[in-house]
Every structure is written in C-alpha cells, then in structure tokens.
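Supplementary Note 2. Why include the ligand at all?

Several targets in our set were suspected to adopt different conformations when bound, so apo predictions alone were not considered sufficient. For every target with a known small-molecule partner we therefore ran a joint prediction. The input for flavin-adenine dinucleotide is given below.
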Amino acid sequence: MAQHIYDYAIIGSGLTGLSIAAALSRETSNIVLLEGADVAGGVNKQINFPTGSINNGLRFVPDSVLSEKAMRFLESLLETKVVADVSEEAPITYDSGNFKTFLGFGENPPAFYEELNYFTSSKKLDLAVEPYQWTQMLLQKFTGDFMPRSYVTKFHQENDKVTSITINGSKTLHAHNFIFAGTVKDLAILLPEDAVSVRARSKLAKNNYWTALCLDLCHGKAVTESTAMHVLNGTTQDEIGPCAGRFLPAVEVEGQTLQASQWITFIESEVTDDSESVGLALKKIKRQVKRAYPEALDDLKLERIFVSPIIAGNGDLKLSANMTIPSLENLWIASATVNEQKNLVGSLLQAEMIVASLGFKVQEVEHLETDFQEASM
Ligand SMILES: Cc1cc2nc3c(=O)[nH]c(=O)nc-3n(C[C@H](O)[C@H](O)[C@H](O)COP(=O)(O)OP(=O)(O)OC[C@H]3O[C@@H](n4cnc5c(N)ncnc54)[C@H](O)[C@@H]3O)c2cc1C
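The joint prediction is reproduced in token form.
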C-alpha cells in the first residue's frame, strides 16, 4: 500500500500549534497535529475549581500594539470576539501595613525580573474568552488528524528537506512540510546530524532558565473586591523573591461565598525537581498572602499547585527570514520562544508569521461577537 504523505505535519498542540492547525484547516484537511501528551492545549488548560472553570494558573495580557495585533489574528481564526475591553489598573503591593501602588522593584530586582515584570503593566486586555478556552475552540476549528500520545523523537533529512519524522521512537510519518511548535530546546536532539553545527546544538541543549510555580487558591469567603494585580515580597530579601497574583471576583456556590486567587513565582530550572525548593517558594507565597490578608487562608477550600518549565531562551537559534531552519527549507520553527515576545502574544504572532510564510492569510473579520460554549471536560 502506498504510504500516506500529509501536506503539513504540525508538532505540538499548544496555543502556537493549534493556531497554525486552525489556520491551515481553511486550506486543506491533509494535516496531522502531533502531540506528546494525552490532550491538546499545551500549558493553557482548563481546571475545574469550586468557583467554576479557570485557567491553570495566573494569566495576564498587557495591552500593546503587538498584543492587539495578536488578538486580531486569534479573533479572525475563532470568528469570535476575544477581547472585551482595554482597561487601566495600577498593580498594588503591601508594605508597612498598607496597600500601595506598586512602583517597581527599585534597586533589588529579582533575578527573574523580566518574567515577573510582565505581570505589572497597568494597561491590560480584559478577555471575554480565556486562554484555556482559546485552545479548545482552536481544536474545534481543526479538520485534520489529531494524534495525541505521539512524541516526535527524530527528524529525517534528504538533501535540504525533512522527509519524515519518527514518533515515539518507532513509527514513521511522512509529510511535505513540517512545523515545529514544541520545545525549542529539544531540537538539539530532534534535528538530523548535519542540520545545525555542534556549537549551535550545544547552545540549544542548555536552553532552560526559569520554571513557573503557580498556586491557585479557593478561599471559603470573599477576601477582597480588588481586582488589581498584586506584587508581594515581604520585608526580608531572600533567595526566593516576590510573587504576582490577583483575586478573581467572589461567587456564590450553593449558598456559600467563595473566591479564587491565582499566584505565580519563578524558581531556577535546575531546582525544579527539588521538592524542598518548590515547597519553600510555595510557603513564601502563602506567607505573603496571609501578611496582606490575615484571614485569607483560614478557610481554604482547595489549593492547587502547577509547576511548568518556562523555556525563556532560544539558544540563539538562527532561522531564515521565513522562519525555517536555514539548512532545511521545509521545517518551520513556530514555538513562541523564538519570537521576541515569549508569551501568549508571541505564540500568536509566531503562528501568524508562519501561516503567512506558507503563503496564506487569515482574513480579518469585522463586527465579531463573543460565542463560546463551555466544552464538558
Ligand atoms: C504557568 C504559566 C503562566 C503563564 N502566564 C502567561 C500570562 O499570563 N500571559 C502570557 O502572555 N503568557 C503566559 N504564559 C506563557 C504562554 O502561556 C506560553 O508562552 C504559550 O502559551 C506557549 O504556547 P506554545 O504552544 O508555544 O507552547 P506549549 O503550550 O508549551 O505547547 C507545546 C506543546 O507541544 C508538545 N510537544 C513538545 N515537544 C513535542 C514533541 N517532540 N512531540 C510532540 N509534542 C511535543 C507539548 O506536549 C505541548 O503540548 C504562561 C506560561 C505558563 C507555563
């Protein structure tokens, strides 16, 4: 039997891979979306909390020209309004017994300054549809074959093209074009022998900086009406550093008032497997929350921890102007970490760029309305 050749093989079904998959679905269904995990969505997933469905961890999109461009691309893909509004609210901190406007880290910025500073912008996009919902909706727009539990373990090259990939170390899959939306660091292992220099490969392999540590809390009462981003650090400088977080609006559930809050800090990636370091950082978040809101932890209904490596660097991976590996003309690198913006916005901008470089344009749609039906998960 003749082997099947896909037009496009997309590796990784996070926000980046799903955006490309949804866009290309307008052109063809001969696409395969390969995902190493059991389900699609990457780091943006839904969690069912006592207060209702929420993102798995704090999510925030500062307003900027690039954010608005990225959101227009997403809205065109989803044919739905995603941004409800742009609003301005200064972040706050707790100091000497009072809440104050957060004015910056001063002379003692944390080592993960860039990661945390991102959450302190006063101007933000208010989302009508949350990131975990984006990924579900994008998957619904995808018309090709979705293959979960399919981890790509090698690219195979003939002349200057990738011709096939190995999945889970054994199965072979062929395609005309390959779009990589997985972890850039893994390219050190996945790329064929001659595709990049030994030096570039070694730089890629060392490409791992900070791990995000998220704590989601469900409080058994309304703690605050403030929706501002909080930056909490306490009075003593220690190795762990500050955290950012905020409260979601309180809700009534079966006659009881509940309120969720979501917090994030970062630890060095080398200590991610060290439960003591993770434990200390989580304890510090709780200490800071208690300091600012002394009764907030008295009646916790649930706490949820989410540890996720943030791959902040790209090992200086050199790409062609059209985002392919220079020696492999049909392997596009889509991961957000090769974009200037290493976040949700970067995912969308990188996806839009790859779709354009494949020769397609997603037309902008005017006068959209929000249309999201919660999927039962
Ligand atoms: C805790 C946390 C909080 C964040 N908060 C914010 C925020 O508030 N605002 C913001 O803008 N950004 C935030 N970000 C960053 C943003 O979510 C990410 O930059 C973006 O969603 C990354 O999407 P992605 O598709 O590139 O990667 P991912 O979501 O990581 O998806 C990659 C997918 O590829 C799969 N994969 C990898 N390698 C392979 C392989 N070899 N074969 C098959 N599958 C593979 C993985 O299993 C995964 O599903 C946050 C990230 C984290 C982790």
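The chain has two domains: 1-82+128-207+312-372, 86-125+210-310. The domain at 1-82+128-207+312-372 is CATH 3.50.50.60 (FAD/NAD(P)-binding domain). Comparable summaries for the other entries are listed in the accompanying table.
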